[in-house]
User: What shape does this take?
Amino acid sequence: MRSEIEKDYLLKAIDSFKRRIIVVSPEFKILAYNRTEIGIDSDIINQYCYSALYKRSSKCNNCIVSDVQKNNKPACKNSREINLNIDFEENSCLYSYPITHDNEIDAFVILDFDFPAMGDLEGQLQRTNAFFKNLILSSVDGVIAADMNGKVFIFNDAAMKISGYTREEALSSLDIRSIYPNNGAKDIMHKLRSEDYGGKGKLKHYRVDVVGKNGIIIPISLNASIIYDGETEVASIGFFHDLREEQQVKKELEKTQIQLLQAEKMASLGKLAAGVAHQLNNPLGGIILFAKILLEEYELEESAQNDIQRILRDAERCRDTVKELLEFARQTKQVMRPHDINQSIRRTLFLLENQTLFHNIKITKYFESSLPHVAGDIQQLNHMFMNIILNAAEAMEGKGTLIVRTHLLDKKDRICIEIEDTGPGIPLDVLPHIFEPFFTTKEEGKGTGLGLSLVYGIVENHGGEITAKNKSNHNETGTIFIIELPIAGSNDENK
Assistant: This one.
């Protein structure tokens, strides 16, 4: 039993409490209340709590005492949930619990209290949530989270940029499994549940392709994890790093490295050709000189004169070939200068047309006269034409017709060169890839796949375009390479 002094202090403590403490019966009548600074001016004992406190004619909506009666356990509600007709502090709460005797409920206690600290914590939590939300939304990598049914609930700005979906589309209708081609989602989940890819529930730096909204395949480096509630899998989250830009940079770097290697190769070949040409010039000069002396100083039979004339013609022809070879292989800096494109093609054909591969190939030239000059590097241009023409001859297996055309395009700022063969044509599945580095249809050891990729790079370096197509006439086979090059002075680069 409590002493009178103890009871007195308990009553004083209750009355000194700055918030309402009210005891009501199961019929909602007030049985007791604290009487200090609670804003009640008259005695309210035996009045209904909803009438005495809140001026209502019936019990409150969402009555907290009713919840305690129903569940037989304490309850807590924000005062705004109950729709009371009084002004409560912003963070005011009502807390109620039963008073029992012999397992029967005698009455209910209602406490009106506030948690200012709770308000601070709630504000801090809101700020923290906003920070993490902004952190996720502004991440440079795509962040996508989905529940175990595939429904997306996090989809940041980078994910929109990578995939092409809007956030609204992703959150309302996108199934995360649909972005992985060929049941790739199952493979991802299998790896996530394994210990072999970063630990159970984790997947690190995994290379995977995903499908964008427009159907394009996007290479991704994926970091993912499973979100657990205890031991239960409830969701998954992935960080999607778009590899397209990195792959493009890598591709450009590889192309540059190939061009550098080829430039070194061509430089070495040029030095070798120049050295051989100089060595040939001296004996050729001697042959021509002494052939002329024989004709001028000796009286020879007509048949002997004819033989010497033939020696002289062939020697002079060799000298011209050496001269063109020296010009073709002449070592110069990579300087863009105006050049006659017709003359560049003629020089290339001159060096090739008497080769064994071309003996049974008819070469037809349609050169538009008075073409404007093209700003370019003559070595690169010669190398480009030689590559395409040799490819055409090999495609025809040394037998057929090679047609070379040049003309000024209607837009007047570009020259067009067409190189056409009568070979078998290029298979349609191969055609889109012929300019890719290392792509070749030749047998192993017979081709590197670099020739046309270098041609593409040269045309690109000159501000031009190159395309290839098969002849559209069903009665003919063959391929046409179409090269467009800007004329000198047609753009700022060439001025």
User: Anything to note?
Assistant: The CA atoms of residues 343 and 353 lie 15 Å apart.
